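In the design runs reported in the main text, the only information available to the sequence generator was the tokenized backbone. The following block is the verbatim input for one such run; it is reproduced so that readers can re-run the procedure and compare outputs position by position.
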């Protein structure tokens, strides 16, 4: 197609890697193909990319960008929750790509948020959207955070590692949780609580407080499926008290830290919630505990009530954002993206 430019985008997390090939024509991103990979099956990102790219395809690509769950310095990073080192320059040279840029995974989502339609969001708090900064927080394998700075005409994402800041308990229960986790980790960050591993940590704490009792059927499910998905699912059902209490505590701490980030960013435009866990617990988030903790900021309570809060439902936001960033390295402006529904 005349004027077509091929772009490769990636979303590399602690568990999975998603890759997508896009065609950019006239400011519109059209998907060519995409694929998902279980990271545990590969020794590193080069193997994943070689599986995805077809013979001779690398040379046709004009730009590539990957959102990666780690701090990126000098186009290189080590994934926080996976023993992979990703060297963008080495990958570019080894695969024969024209250009390849690594960005933080939350930065990638930040570049994608503005391209998503209204139906890709679930509104937790309508608030009053004003011109200004926005905040992005995402609970998944880890806890990602970013600030979307308003430059006068658009939002520019800035990555952070705010999920690794010290956890601050707000009541006796959370103080006991902190003490429990200090014994396990020493340093306790918000990621140790608001993430997949965090939900497991909370459940173990709640179970220990209750005397260590656990129904046989629940123990079997957790062993087979993993703690986070089972505890969140059973917590929303409310049948098992420990699961329900673990999910309640998870949601409350999530809301509190989202509020902390909103204040630090002065997020008058709004707060976005992303990550793999968030869309799966919508009912728990909407039940009220999240917003109660989000708004519980003393003299700033009324300010917090005015901030829009939305959940990102489209799990391709990171892929879209990475493609948008890759287009920007070519001097292109993306106006629209065409994608099917969620994976």
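Verbatim output:
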């Amino acid at each position: 197609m005349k004027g077509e430019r091929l772009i490769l985008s990636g979303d590399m997390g602690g568990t999975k890697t998603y890759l997508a090939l896009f065609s950019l024509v006239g400011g519109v991103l059209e998907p060519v193909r995409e694929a998902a990979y279980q990271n545990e099956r590969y020794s590193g990102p080069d193997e994943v990319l070689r599986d995805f790219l077809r013979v001779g395809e690398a040379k046709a690509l004009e730009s590539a960008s990957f959102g990666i769950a780690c701090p990126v310095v000098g186009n290189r990073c080590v994934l926080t929750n996976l023993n992979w080192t990703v060297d963008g320059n080495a990958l570019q040279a080894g695969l024969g790509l024209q250009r390849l840029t690594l960005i933080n995974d939350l930065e990638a989502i930040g570049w994608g948020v503005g391209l998503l339609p209204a139906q890709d969001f679930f509104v937790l708090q309508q608030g009053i959207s004003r011109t200004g900064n926005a905040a992005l927080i995402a609970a998944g394998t880890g806890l990602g955070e970013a600030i979307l700075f308003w430059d006068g005409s658009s939002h520019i994402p800035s990555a952070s590692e705010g999920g690794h800041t010290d956890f601050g308990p707000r009541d006796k229960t959370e103080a006991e949780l902190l003490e429990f986790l200090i014994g396990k980790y020493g340093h306790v960050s918000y990621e140790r609580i608001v993430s997949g591993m965090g939900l497991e940590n909370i459940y173990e704490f709640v179970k220990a407080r209750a005397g260590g009792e656990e129904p046989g059927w629940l123990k079997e499910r957790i062993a087979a499926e993993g703690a986070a998905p089972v505890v969140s699912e059973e917590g929303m059902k409310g049948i098992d008290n420990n699961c329900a209490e673990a999910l309640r505590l998870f949601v409350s701490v999530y809301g509190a830290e989202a509020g902390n980030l909103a204040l630090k960013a002065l997020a008058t435009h709004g707060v976005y919630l992303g990550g793999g866990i968030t869309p799966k617990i919508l009912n728990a988030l909407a039940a009220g505990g999240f917003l109660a903790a989000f708004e519980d900021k003393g003299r700033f309570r009324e300010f917090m009530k005015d901030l829009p809060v939305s959940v990102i439902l489209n799990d391709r936001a990171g892929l879209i954002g990475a493609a948008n960033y890759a287009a920007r390295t070519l001097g292109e402006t993306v106006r629209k993206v065409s994608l099917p529904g969620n994976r």
